[in-house]
């Protein structure tokens, strides 16, 4: 998606340690018009698929997923919580994921009331690096008996290989911008063609 690639080039910041900051428009300050264009792109890609729910992980995926849901007939958006709280009651699906940006492992939790057997799920997230967060969401769907129909990603760090491994396993991943390389010294970002 050229629009997203241009925004990354103009407003993204490359940091040491393979970190790409896009907080000006994607995961701190949210450009809702851009999110709407992203949702439309995913709707085109996954056209003809039955999508009954969108599943993401807190926190950065929530805004993107909510706007994207409007392009799928306003299906419910469910987000996996990263911590147990008193608001989470009843039976739950849980797994553990490792966060590349936070450099730590944490639990992810979804109430069994909101992810069900027979659901056809589109996974949405802001970043795909090594694929650990997505594998956690896929595991939650497996536990629920839900079908993963596809995966929509805003920015994939292609050089980290997580997306390629998931594609090899048969998952349909639509990443709107795939970063091939980035340089913290120059700030340059190169995208996969």
TrEMBL record:
Xanthine binds at residues 20, 27, 157. Its main location: cytoplasm. SUPFAM superfamilies: PRTase-like (SSF53271). Gene3D superfamilies: 3.40.50.2020. Pathway: Purine metabolism; XMP biosynthesis via salvage pathway; XMP from xanthine: step 1/1. One of its GO terms (biological process) is XMP salvage. GO terms for molecular function: xanthine phosphoribosyltransferase activity. Its EC number is 2.4.2.22. It catalyses: XMP + diphosphate = xanthine + 5-phospho-alpha-D-ribose 1-diphosphate. It is an enzyme of class 2 (transferase). NCBIfam families: PRK09219.1, XPRTase. This is Xanthine phosphoribosyltransferase. It comes from Bifidobacterium moukalabense DSM 27321.
């Amino acid at each position: 998606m050229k629009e997203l690639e241009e925004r990354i080039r103009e407003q993204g910041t490359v940091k040491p340690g393979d970190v790409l900051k896009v907080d000006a428009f994607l995961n701190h300050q949210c450009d809702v018009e851009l999110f709407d264009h992203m949702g439309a792109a995913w709707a085109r890609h996954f056209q003809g698929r039955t999508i009954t729910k969108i599943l993401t992980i807190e926190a950065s995926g929530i805004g993107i997923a909510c706007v994207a849901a409007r392009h799928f007939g306003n299906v419910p958006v469910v987000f996996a919580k990263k911590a147990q709280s008193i608001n989470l009651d009843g039976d739950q699906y849980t797994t553990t994921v490792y966060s590349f940006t936070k450099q730590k492992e944490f639990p992810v939790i979804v109430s069994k009331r909101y992810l069900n057997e027979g659901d056809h799920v589109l996974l949405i997230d802001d970043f795909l690096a090594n694929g650990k967060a997505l594998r956690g969401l896929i595991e939650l769907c497996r536990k629920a008996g839900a079908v993963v129909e596809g995966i929509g990603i805003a920015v994939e760090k292609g050089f980290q290989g997580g997306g390629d491994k998931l594609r090899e396993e048969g998952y349909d991943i639509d990443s709107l911008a795939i970063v091939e390389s980035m340089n913290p010294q120059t700030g340059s970002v190169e995208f996969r063609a």
